[in-house]
Amino acid sequence: MPSYQAPVADALFLLNDVLHWDRYNNLPGFSDASPDVVEAVLGEAAKISEEILQPINLSGDHEGCVRNADGSVTTPKGFKEAFKAYAEGGWIGLATNPEYGGQGLPYTLATLVNEFSASANMAFTMYPGLTQSAIAAIDKHASTNLKQIYLPKMIAGTWAGTMNLTEPHCGTDLGLLKTKAVPQADGSYAITGQKIFISAGEQDLTENIVHLVLARIEGAPAGTRGISLFIVPKFLPDATGNPGARNPVSCGSIEHKMGIHANSTCVMNYDGAKGWLVGEANRGLNAMFVMMNEARMGVANQGLSQSEVAYQNAAAYARDRLQGRSISGPKAPDKPADPIIVHPDIRRMLLEIRSFNEAARALILWASLHADMATRNPDEKLRQTSEDILGLLTPVLKGVFTDRGFDNAVKAQQVFGGHGYIAEGGMEQFVRDARIAMIYEGANGIQALDLVGRKLPKDGGRALTAFLSEVNAYLKEEEADAAMKPYTSGLKQGVSHLQQSTVWLMQNAMAKPDNAGAGSYDYMHLFGLVALGYMWCRIAKAAMARKAADASQAAAMDAKLIAGKFFMERMMPETASHLARISSGADTMMAMPAEAF
Amino acid sequence: MPSYQAPVADALFLLNDVLHWDRYNNLPGFSDASPDVVEAVLGEAAKISEEILQPINLSGDHEGCVRNADGSVTTPKGFKEAFKAYAEGGWIGLATNPEYGGQGLPYTLATLVNEFSASANMAFTMYPGLTQSAIAAIDKHASTNLKQIYLPKMIAGTWAGTMNLTEPHCGTDLGLLKTKAVPQADGSYAITGQKIFISAGEQDLTENIVHLVLARIEGAPAGTRGISLFIVPKFLPDATGNPGARNPVSCGSIEHKMGIHANSTCVMNYDGAKGWLVGEANRGLNAMFVMMNEARMGVANQGLSQSEVAYQNAAAYARDRLQGRSISGPKAPDKPADPIIVHPDIRRMLLEIRSFNEAARALILWASLHADMATRNPDEKLRQTSEDILGLLTPVLKGVFTDRGFDNAVKAQQVFGGHGYIAEGGMEQFVRDARIAMIYEGANGIQALDLVGRKLPKDGGRALTAFLSEVNAYLKEEEADAAMKPYTSGLKQGVSHLQQSTVWLMQNAMAKPDNAGAGSYDYMHLFGLVALGYMWCRIAKAAMARKAADASQAAAMDAKLIAGKFFMERMMPETASHLARISSGADTMMAMPAEAF
Q1: pLDDT one-digit tens code per residue, B209-242
Q2: Which of A315, A453, A577 sits opposite B573 (nearest CB)?
Q3: Which of A127, B27, B258, B561 is buried deepest, with most CB atoms within 10 A?
Q4: Side-chain half-sphere CA neighbours of B336 within 13 A
C-alpha cells in the first residue's frame, strides 16, 4: 500500500527562503500567520493528511460511492468520520471570511493544506475543495442575507457546496444551457433542468448540500448573456437556519468512471427546485467565474498532489527493489542485485518528476500569494498587478500542472514495472485519479485558449508585460552571479523562446485567428516551462544562501541544486520544440477536410 | 459504445504502393499471398475483428476474468465462442510452419491481422498472440518429437501457449530466478517454483495450456547462464497426443489490475510439474528470446492498435459533437454550435495521433517484411541485413509504439471531455489497456537499454550503419524532387540529430557507461521519430504517384500528404530536444545520492 509524507520542510523553505513570507506581514491575515504559526498549521495539516485521509484512499477507490434506491449516496467507509475531523479541524474555513466564522488566514496557506490533503486522498479532498470554491463565490457575489444563511454552515463544514454547470449537450459551451429559472412571488426562482458530471452532487457527509446552479431566467437572452447563478440547497433552510423541507433536487444516477471513485459524480435533476439568485440576473457566468478560478487553482494543485505522492512511492521503491547491476559496476556487491536507483534511466524518471514538483509547488505558492495580494494589498496598483499575474497564471497552472501531474503519475508507475499495474499496489490509482484533472474545470485545451485568446491580449498585454518584466529584471540582477549561471542561462533561453512565440502569435493571429488556436497548447506548455524555470532560479539562489548560512542543511540544499540543474538540462530544452510547433501555424491542420479525419 | 473499422484500405496501400509487395513474390509463402489473396485475407480479418471481437471488448473489460475456488479461470461472456471462431478461421496459424498445419503465409500479413484483432479487443488478442509466440519458440528450438506433439494443436488453437519468466523477486533481472528443474529417469524434468504476472496462465478457452517456463536445472550455474527453457503442459499429452493426466501446475490467484481485465494475469505454482527441455540446457534465455522478440513486436502492435481504435472514435466524436463556434467564424450557422472538429486544438490532437498511426503501421510492416526476409530470403547476406535491421527496430518499435500508443489513447480520450472519463463510453478502457504495453515484455526503459547498450554496438554497429545508409541513400535519391521537400527536409534534420546523438554516445559512453544509460530513453524516441519520418517520406512519395495515376484516390491521398506534413512540422522538431537531453549526459542525475531521492 502506498505511503505519504507531507513535504512540510520544503513548504517552509519555499515560504520563508524563496518567497520571503516575512515581507507580507503588513497584510490582513498575514500578521496572524507568523512563521511559527505557519509551521504549526502545516504540521497539523500533515498529520490529518497522513493519518486520517491517506489510509482510506486505496480502500475508498476500491469501494467507491454507491447510489441507493432512494437517490441517496453512500460514500466509502471512513469518509464520514474523516470529513467530520476535517471540518472540525477548521480546515475548510482556513482562509475564509472571519465575519462568517472563517479563520481569515492567507489563501497561500490553504493552497499548501489542500496539496497535502489531495496527495493523501484526492477524491476526498474534492468534497471540502468544492465547498471552498462555493464559499468564495457566495462571499463575493451573494446578498448579505444569503451569506448569513449559508456561509457559517459551509465554513464549519456542516453543509457542503457543489457547482452545477454542465448539461448533457453542453460542457464547454455554456451558452447552450437549457436549465430554466422561473421567478416566484416570494422572490425565489423555480429551477428545472438536468445537470451532469456534478462532483459531490450527493453524499452522506454533511447535513445539507448547497448547489450553485447556472440557469436561464425565463425570457432571458439566448447565449452566455442570459445565464444567471442560483443557490439551490438540498434542504430549504427553515426559520432557524437549519435544514427544513426537502427541495425537489435529486441525484438521478452516479457515473462509473476511470478514477476518483470515492467522489460521487452525479446526474442532478432539478424539478422546480427553489433557488435564490446570486449576484445580478444574467451575470451568472461572471459570478461563477470566481468559483471556477478558485477551482482551477484547486485542480492545478491536484495535479501537483498526485505527482508528489506518486514520486514519494516510486523513490522509495527504487531505493528498495533489487534488480540488475549498475552499468558502471556493482554498487551493492553483498546483495543479489543493486537497488534499481543505480540505473540512470530510473533516475531520469524520478528527476523528471521531482524537478517538476518542487518548482510547481513554488509556482502555485507564488500565484497564491498574488491571489492574497490581489484582495489584501492596500496599494491599488499592486492589487491590480497581482490580479493580472494571477489571471495569466491560472490557465497555465491548471493546464500544465494537470498534464504533468498525470504524466508524472504514469512515470512513477513505470518505476514499479509490472507491480505498478496491479490495483493493490495503489500506483495505478494515482494515474486514474490524476487523469480527471486534465479534463474538468475546463479541459486543458480550453485553458490554452483562455491563455492565448483572452489573457494575453487583455488590457493591451499588461499581464504578460508584468510577468516578463519581472523575469527579465531578475535575470539582469543575477547576471553577475557565476554560481547562478547553470540556472539563469536555461531560463534565458526559455524566455527568448517565449518572447519569439509571443511575437509570432501577435504577427500571425490577428489576420488568421486559427494560428492562435493551433499554437495555444504549445504556448501554454512553453509558458509553464518558463514559469517553472523562473521558480528554479529563485529556489537555487535561496538554496545557495541557506547552505552557506547553515551547514546542517547542505545535503537538502544540494539535492535542490541538482534537481534544478536537471530541470534546466532536461526539461527546458523542450521550449525550442514548442517554438517550432507554434510557428508552424494552422495551415496544415486546417487543410484537412472534416470528413477526411 | 466505441466502434471500430479495420483500416484495410490503408493496409493495402502500404503493402502495394509503399512496400511494393509484388517485389517479394519469389519468397516462400509470398507466392501464395498475391494481392487479391491479401485483400481477401484482410477483409476476413476485418470482419472477425469488427463483428466478433469488438462487440465483446467493453463488456469483457467490465466483467473481467474470475478465478474459481478450484483454481480454474472463467473468461468473460462470449470469449470462448470468439476464440473458437478465431481458431477455426485459421488466424493463429496464419504465418506458422505448414509442416505442422500452419498456412505459411508471410509474417507481415499476420502483423496486420493482429493489429486489427488487438484494436477490436486487446485483452482477447493476447490469448492467440501468446500462443503464436510460443509456437515460434517451439518451432525454432524444440525437438522434432516435441514439435509433433505440440505444434499442430497450438496452430489449430485447441491448445494455447504462455510464457513464464517473472518471479516475485525478479522481473527484468532473470539471473535471479529460482524455479528449479530436477532431471527425471524418463528424460523429463520436475519443475518447482512460483511464477507471477503470467498472462493467459489459466483460462477456459482451450482444452490444454502449454506453458513455456524458464527454470534452473539442479546444479546449473548461478545467473543467466544457468537458465533452461521447458515445456510444461497443463494436461500431460497421452499416447494418442490428447490431454491426459493433470500436471501439478495451477493458478494460485489472478491479479486485479488497471486494465486488460479480460485477460487473466496469473500467479502460477509449479509443484514438481513434469516438463521437457526445449533447446539446450542452460541456453534457455537464448531460446526464450525468440519468443520475446516475437512478443515485443506483438506488443508494439498493441500500442498502434489502441492508438488506431482510439483515434477512430475520437475523430467520429469530433465530427458530431456540437460545442462552441470556430474562431474564424461559424461553420455550421444553421446549428446551435459548430462541430468541435472546427477547433485547431482538436485537430492538433487528432493529427498527432493520426500522423503517428499511419507511419507506425508502415514501420511495423516494413520491420515485419524484414522478419520475413530474415528467414525466407535465399540470399544469406540479405537475410543477415534483414535480421540486423529487425533486431535494431524491435526495441524501438516496442518502446516508441507503446509510449505513443498510450499517449494517443489519452489524447483521444481528451477529445471527449468529461464523457471520455466515463466507463460506459469505452475511451478510458483504451487508456487502461494501452498502459500495460509500456511495461510488459521488458519495460520501455529496458528496450532503450537494449537499443543503446546492445543493438547499437553489436557487430561494430553494422545494423545502424545499414539503417542509416538506406535512409541517407533515400534522401539523396529524393533530393531533386521539389514536391518531396516538405517531407525530406524534416527527415534530414531528424537524421542529423540522430547522427549527432550517436557520435556523442560513442565519444562519451565508453569511458562512462552511465552516459549511455542516461541518454538511452531519449535516443530510442529520437530513433523512432526518424524511422517514422522515413516512412512518411515513402508514404508521401507513393501517395503522390497514386494520386497522379488515379484521380478517384485524390482525397484519400491528400489526407495522407497533409498528415505527413503535420508530422514533419509538429512531431519531428522534438528530435532537437532529444539531442539536447542526450548530450547533457549523466553527471547531474548521478550526482544525487540515493538517499536524497
Answers
A1: 999 999 999 999 999 999 999 999 999 999 999 9
A2: A577
A3: A127
A4: 15
**Residue A65 near residue A254, CB atoms below 8 Å:** yes
* Cβ–Cβ pairs < 8 A, chains A and B: 261
Given this model, what pLDDT does residue A289 score? Answer: 82
**Is residue B460 packed enough to be buried (19+ CB in 10 Å), middle (13-18) or exposed (0-12)?**
exposed
CB B48 within 8 A of CB B9: no
CA distance A468 to B148: 74
Q: Are strands B208-217 and B180-183 parallel, antiparallel or unpaired?
A: parallel
Q: Choose the mutation target among B326, B351, B421 for the interface with A, i.e. most A CBs under 10 Å.
A: B421
Å between B208 CA and nearest CA of chain A: 26
Structure confidence by residue, pLDDT tens digits, B183-210: 999 999 999 999 999 999 999 999 999 9
* DSSP H or E run through A10: helix A8-13
CA distance linking residue B328 with residue B331, whole number of Å? 9
Q: Give the CB-side neighbour count of residue A19, counting CA atoms within 13 A.
A: 24
Asked if A529 and A571 count as a contact pair (C-beta separation under 8 A), the reply is: yes
Q: Does A243 score more than 90 pLDDT?
A: yes
A477 touches chain B (CB under 8 A): no
Q: In whole angstroms, what is the distance from residue B308 CA to residue B46 CA?
A: 14
Q: Does B583 touch chain A (CB under 8 A)?
A: no
Average pLDDT rounded to a whole number, residues A475-500:
97
> Do the beta carbons of residue B540 and residue B561 sit within 8 Å?
yes
Beta strands A243-246; A228-233: pairing state: unpaired
On chain A, the residues whose CB falls within 8 A of the CB of B569 are 580-581, 584, 588
CA angle A215, A216, A221 (to 5 degrees): 150
Distance between A213 CA and the closest CA of chain B, angstroms: 18
**Residue-wise pLDDT tens digits, A439-475:** 999 999 999 999 999 999 999 999 999 999 999 999 9
b (16+ CB within 10 A) / e for A228-238? bbbbbbbbebe
Burial call B32-66: b when 16+ CB within 10 Å, e when fewer? ebeeeebbebbeebbebbbebbbbbbbebbebbbe
Is B536 at the interface with chain A, CB within 8 A?
no
Please tell me which residue in A50, A441, A477, A569 is annotated as part of the active site: A441
* Residue B441 annotated to the active site: yes
Residue A16 confidence (pLDDT) above 80: yes
Whether the CB of A539 is below 8 Å from some CB of chain B: the reply is no
- Which residues make Cβ contacts (< 8 Å) with residue B465, sequence separation at least 6? none
Nearest chain A residue to B589 by CA distance is A347
Per-residue CA distances from A270 to A167, A192, A276 (Å): 12, 5, 14
Would you state the pLDDT for residue A384?
96
Cα A195 from Cα A169, distance rounded (Å): 10
Chain A hits for B516, CB-CB cut-off 8 Å, are: 327
Average pLDDT, chain B: 97
Determine the average pLDDT of the residues in B100-116.
97
Distances (CA, A) of B65 to A59, B118, B125, B265: 21, 18, 15, 9
Sorted by sequence, the CB contacts under 8 Å of residue B424 that are 6+ apart come out as A256, B1, B58
Beta carbons of A397 and A296 less than 8 angstroms apart: yes
Q: What is the pLDDT of residues A153-168, one digit of tens each?
A: 999 999 999 999 999 9
User: How far A113 CA sits from the closest chain B CA (Å)?
Assistant: 23
B533 touches B491 (CB < 8 A): yes
d(CA A106, CA A96): 9
